[in-house]
Specification:
Blueprint lengths: L12 H4 L5 H5 L2 H10 L2 E4 L5 E4 L2 H8 L5 E2 L10 H14 L13 H8 L5 H22 L4 E3 H18 L6 H14 L4 H24 L5 H7 L1 E2 L2 E2 L2 H15 L1 H16 L1 H9 L4 H11 L5 E5 L3 E3 L2 E3 L4 E4 L1 H4 L34 H18 E6 L6 E3 L5 E4 L1 E6 L5
Antiparallel strand pairs: 1-2, 3-7, 4-14, 5-6, 7-10, 8-9, 11-14, 12-13
The structure holds protoporphyrin IX containing FE.
Protoporphyrin IX containing FE (HEM) binds next to helix 6, helix 12, helix 13 and helix 17.
């Protein structure tokens, strides 16, 4: 596949959608509404071809179709031939690439079991003081300016440091983590050479860490994984590097997107900003609602046996996009789906997925969102968008704002 993105305009979203279309990236909800009414499972031949379901119930059904829908290749755009060769060879020797997200049963469960303890409520509670201190330190850096980029100066700084804290890697390398994850996921989706380059950088980094921790174990996730066993056998380097790579790529731009989109929402909705300030006890339901409204993650599945759903016939080899963000705007599942309702009572959204692959890091993601918003509201009295043209979004399989320029007044602090 060429290194140039397909930029042909879309004429019919039902038969030729493009998840990288700039208008869709900015606001996909009108497209989902249109499709839900006239073609609830859309089709495209772009980017290797795929199906796009838009109804909540179809998403629930599809996410549970294991193993008819395989997780072995969750990325929509097929790898370039040189990477494909490497992946096929590695899969033959070692199993899936970044388990458990790229694993099917029976391989999936033991890997998932290994990582769940890193994200238990207790483990996440232990990360909370660090996250709070980090958020305050970040605000210290720009509070005197009266303006900041809520995405670049705040959200984007939080998640790579928290995941470095979990993994036991040097938090000073957080900026590199951001470059690598953007290189692999944001730009690498449509630019194969970046995908190859940053996949290599991330794997080399964790291979070095694995070698280092084998020699000098510490009290961190990498050392724990090196001691872990599946069916009485220790993991090999490929497995540990794969799990660590997943935790990095799953833990950085997802939550950073959600923190940025939440701050963008409050910057553009003064009534909600005032409400959360007046009723801080709404924070947990507000976070769920913002996760629903601006869900960042869409994952791919590969069809392994014929699937008949919503009037379409999917064939082995087809790709399906699990469009959790679209399901979360379905009026059949949510009242007023296109409004943010901070105290929404019933909110069975699918932002974290569902079924065997449901987000393993969801406790951590929610803690980071809550602490980031709490500290921001605590330190900043009122804020608004400084430059509407400066707000930018990225899209594809992880969608979120990449720049949110705000101006603000600092809160008066006692003592
Ligand atoms: C707001 C932030 C986040 C969102 C919206 C999100 C969303 C998702 C979704 C939709 C899935 C399901 C994938 C599938 O069905 O194939 C998933 C899986 C996963 N997520 Fe998250 N995620 C977030 C943050 C995190 C964080 C902070 C971590 C921690 C490193 C994490 C780790 C994982 C892992 C390990 C899986 C794979 C689980 C499995 O395959 O069993 N996520 N996430």
């Amino acid at each position: 596949m060429a290194d140039t993105p397909d930029t042909r305009p879309v004429h019919d979203w039902a038969s030729d959608y493009d998840i990288f279309d700039p208008d869709y990236v900015r606001d996909p909800a009108p497209v989902w509404d249109d499709l839900r009414n006239r073609c609830p499972i859309a089709r495209t031949e772009r980017w290797g071809g795929s199906w796009l379901p838009t109804r909540y119930e179809d998403l629930r059904t599809l996410a549970k179709m294991v193993p008819a829908l395989s997780s072995r290749s969750p990325v929509l755009v097929p790898p370039p031939p040189e990477l494909r060769e490497v992946l096929v060879a590695e899969a033959k020797m070692f199993g899936s690439e970044i388990p458990p997200i790229t694993s099917d049963p029976p391989e999936h469960k033991p890997y998932r079991r290994l990582i769940l303890p890193f994200f238990s409520p207790h483990a996440v509670a232990e990360r909370t003081p660090y996250t709070r201190e980090l958020c305050n330190r970040l605000v210290d850096g720009f509070i005197g300016e009266g303006r900041a980029d809520a995405a670049v100066d705040y959200a984007q700084q939080i998640t790579p440091r928290v995941i470095a804290h979990v993994l036991g890697t040097d938090p000073a390398r957080a900026d590199e983590f951001v470059t690598w994850v953007r290189g692999l996921i944001e730009f690498g989706q449509t630019q194969p050479q970046k995908r190859i380059k940053y996949r290599g950088i991330i794997r080399d980094f964790f291979q070095e860490m694995v070698t280092e921790r084998r020699a000098r174990p510490r009290d961190d996730a990498i050392s724990t994984l090196l001691e872990a066993e599946i069916e009485g056998e220790k993991l090999n380097d490929y497995g540990v590097v794969g799990v660590c790579s997943l935790l990095l790529v799953a833990g950085v731009d997802t939550t950073w997107s959600s923190i940025s989109s939440s701050l963008l929402h409050f910057a553009t909705h003064p009534e909600d900003q005032a409400r959360l300030r007046a009723e801080p006890e709404l924070l947990p339901t507000a976070v769920e609602e913002l996760l629903r409204f601006h869900s960042p993650v869409t994952v791919g599945r590969k069809v392994t046996e014929p699937v008949s759903i919503g009037g379409v016939e999917m064939q082995p080899g087809d790709k399906v996009l699990l469009n959790f963000p679209g399901a979360n705007r379905d009026p059949a599942a949510f009242d007023r789906p296109d409004e943010v309702v901070l105290d929404r009572k019933r909110n069975r959204h699918l932002a974290s997925g569902l079924g065997i692959h449901r987000c393993a890091g969801s406790n951590l993601a929610r803690m980071e969102m809550q602490v980031a918003l709490q500290v921001w509201f605590d330190r900043i009295a009122a804020f608004e968008i400084a430059d509407p043209d400066g707000v930018s979004w990225t899209g594809g399989q992880v969608r979120g704002p990449r720049s949110v320029p705000v101006r603000f007044t600092a809160a008066q602090r006692n003592g």
